[in-house]
Amino acid sequence: MATNVKEFGPPFDDADADIILRSTDHVDFRVYRVILSKASPVFRDMFTFPHPGPTGKLDDDDHKDGLPLVRLPEDSATLSMLLHAIYPFAPHADPAHSSGALGALDALTEAWLAADKYELDGLRSTLTAQLQTHPLMARQPLRLFATAYRLRSQALLRTAAAHTLPLAPLTLAALGRHVDLVPFIAVRHLVAYHRACGDAARDCVRLRADEDGFAEVFLPGLLACAGGGRARVCRDSRCQLGNPRAPMPRPETLEWWQEYMEALGEKLSERPAMSATDAMQACTSEWEVFAQKLCARCRGFAASALVLAHNFLAELLKAEIEEEVQFEHYVSHMESSMFPR
């Protein structure tokens, strides 16, 4: 018998409990078989196995205080989370109370594996949702991608893959130290996913590089910035903008718009998750070509309109990528290559 065994305490210390679970770090949980059996088919099957009968002593290798003793391969923190989730009257243990974000991630991961092992589907779904919104998802998405690979969770793979898009292009420097946590085949599929997202972003922008796209993306902001329906015709003969309320933009303006959107599409093909600000900075030279041909008044209106256009495009591109690039396609390849049966 181990001499350093501890009792977990409430709520797993009932005097009339009928079984004791012991963790790998020698913490005992006094529980009821019927509650665990109702929650988990694995526990139910486990408790149907014959348990060694008492030896006449209250304590031996298989008993404590006359109760059956079952040693489990989980530590006390993981068992606590499982049991708190199973017991209908116990407050759920919060893994966020672990030491720091990494501690919480490790605790969530171990709890997810245990929930999967014991077929606790509700807890596994809850833990998946917590992992999808984990603070490290934004800061270290590749680490969460590695966690998703370890857990074989398609939902978490989708979320983590999308969060890696700001890392594009996926060079070794961009991937950072966490690339060692991900198998090479998984990185290959992630690169293919990034390429597909870049193609979708480029095509979405190119489709709006014509007159209709100008009217959809740029003109509403220009009219708003120039005074709405009261927008006036520019009287400066040197200004290329002219009348913002004209049925069609000037050919020179439309030509600039086409070149600008073509350049933007190429930038987005490499970095499909660029913010509106980053996208504007990436196309500074194309904007300056147009700005030099505008009067000071129209230049200010056009610059403000371009900010609104990029904000509009950012939302449009996000929806377009989510709709056009289904990560399930890449997950299916990963299932066969990364998760052999």
Task: Provide the spatial order of strands within the biggest beta sheet.
Answer: 1-3-2-5-4
Distance between the termini: 40 Å
* Percent of sequence in beta strands: 5-15%
The helix content, as a percent range, equals: 55-70%
What's the alpha carbon Rg, rounded to whole Å? 30 Å
The major β-sheet equals: 5 strands, mixed
> Strand-and-helix sequence, N→C?
EEEHHEEHHHHHHHHHHHHHH
Architecture overview:
This protein is mostly helical and 341 residues long. It has 16 helices and 5 strands. Strand 2 and strand 3 (27-31) form a beta hairpin. The mean pLDDT is 85.
Summarize the structure.
The chain is built from 16 helices and 5 strands. Helix content is 58%, strand content 5%. The model has no long low-confidence stretch (mean pLDDT 85).
